[in-house]
Design a protein that fits this description.
The structure is a single chain. By secondary structure, this protein is of the alpha/beta class. Helix content is about 40%, strand content about 15%. The protein contains 16 helices and twelve strands. The strands form two sheets. The protein has a seven-stranded mixed sheet with strand order 1-7-6-5-4-2-3, sandwiched between helices. The chain has a five-stranded mixed sheet with strand order 8-9-12-11-10, covered by helices on one side. It is globular and about 70 Å long. Bound molecules: pyridoxal-5'-phosphate. The site of pyridoxal-5'-phosphate has 17 residues, from helix 4 and helix 5.
Length: about 400
């Protein structure tokens, strides 16, 4: 194994304790006694670092937040009850009525619905672009643009964004970049590439075994002494947090503008299960990114219509080799040509679990048009790359030869 070595030591060492209980303590309490009034006052004004109430923060969840912040070289993280909650927290802590979002690339169905169906009801509009429309993206930025949002890998269109170039555009225009890095934790480091916030569904490969829902937003430090986009007029609502909390400002901003009022808090038990999953994340990720390539290449050779950027015919193959040296996660897609052919194929497979999840220890598969995208219209499906015969596969930890054999016998 060569990938993710730097994480292997620190995850297990930081998650486990050298003294007392080795496994993280589950602090299952909604509230916490302050002891005396002065301490209570200090907890509320932030000068005393003790738990206030579990909606605003929990010690077990705080441990997970510190591990995720370090993983992404962020200044802090806020964990949530699900991945959608993390996106909602990050977005709602920044936008107001009348603002605009620019969304880039193939988008997770829930995020697409959040932007088009829900935020639109509150006067927040979103425009959508392909990852390669850099000029159009730059031209679309207005005074009202508050967020550029992208996914590290198009799910399920498998298109790869040039995150560094998009971050440069955002820096030039002083606009916040949020990257949904659910599919590529460790492989892609959004904050290092210039994003301001990374969001995750930890439900997927981070916890890794379908045991728990969860999400996280990881924040970069505000540059207090030099220039910083958050100091501009565009983000004036955040200035009071910069004044009070300096480099950490995005954390109280997320807690007070979203967590306190929407209440999408992670539970202590969920955070515990996610921590257990993280201990083996580097091992699982390494095996899965190697298996995905093996399966994609073998099935491509067999004449399947495979979409994965490790294949030389993929339009972003070069980008994959240069910018995605540690892979692009567990996904590949197969286009069987029609819904009937896709159903017949999937029902004949024996190995994959047919479900909407991804990033599991076991291989998962799903026909896209009849499930997640069933109430999308033709134009939306075309933009998102959803064809009638499209099957999304998330490769698991099984012997890749067994996966290949099963898919070939099912054809
Ligand atoms: C699953 C997923 C989400 C939503 O996560 P939940 O934990 O199901 O709420 C968001 N983004 C991506 C890329 C996902 O795969």
């Amino acid at each position: 194994m060569e990938n993710f070595e730097e994480y292997s030591t620190y995850f297990v060492q930081d998650i486990g304790s050298k003294e007392g209980a080795v496994s993280p303590a589950i602090v299952q309490s909604a509230s916490f006694g302050y002891g005396d009034c002065a301490t209570g006052e200090g907890i509320f004004d932030g000068s005393v670092k003790k738990p206030l109430y579990s909606r605003m923060g929990n010690p077990t969840t705080a441990k997970l937040e510190s591990i995720l912040a370090k993983m992404d070289e962020g200044v802090g993280a806020v964990c949530t009850s699900s991945g959608m909650a993390a996106t909602t927290l990050a977005v709602m802590s920044i936008v107001s009525s009348g603002d605009e979002i620019i969304s880039i690339g193939g988008l997770f169905g829930g995020t697409y619905a959040l932007f088009t169906e829900t935020l639109s009801r509150f006067g927040i509009s979103t425009s959508f672009f392909d990852v390669d429309e850099l000029e159009a993206i730059e031209a679309a930025i207005t005074d009202k643009t508050k967020i550029v949002f992208l996914e590290s890998v198009g799910n399920p269109n498998m298109r790869l964004p040039e995150i560094g170039k998009i971050a440069d555009i955002c820096t030039k225009h002083g606009v916040v970049l949020i990257v949904d890095n659910t599919v590529t934790p460790m492989s892609v480091k959004p904050l290092v590439l210039g994003a301001d916030i990374a969001v995750y569904s930890t439900t997927k490969i981070i916890s890794g075994n379908a045991s728990v829902l969860g999400g996280a937003a990881v924040f970069r430090a505000i540059n207090v002494d030099g220039e910083d986009k958050f100091k501009g007029e565009r983000y004036k609502d955040i200035h009071k947090f910069i004044k009070k909390m300096g480099a950490l400002a995005l954390i109280p901003n997320a807690k007070k503008r979203a967590m306190r009022d929407f209440g999408m808090s992670a539970s202590a038990f969920s955070s515990y299960l996610t921590l257990l999953g993280m201990e083996t994340l580097p091992l699982r990720m390494d095996r899965i990114i190697n298996s995905v390539e093996k399966v994609a290449k073998a099935l491509d050779k067999e004449g399947f219509n495979i979409n994965h950027p490790c294949l030389s015919a993929h339009p972003h193959h070069e980008r994959y080799l240069i910018d995605f040296k540690q892979g692009c996660g567990s996904l590949l897609t197969i286009d069987m040509g029609s819904k009937e052919a896709a159903f017949a194929f999937l029902d004949k497979t024996k190995l994959p679990t047919i479900t909407a999840n991804i990033g599991d220890t076991r291989t998962l598969a799903l026909h896209m048009a009849s499930t997640i995208y069933s109430d999308f219209d033709e134009k939306q499906k075309e933009f998102l790359g959803i064809t009638d015969g499209l099957i999304r596969i998330s490769i698991g930890l099984e012997n890749p030869q067994d996966i290949i054999k099963d898919f070939i016998q099912a054809r």
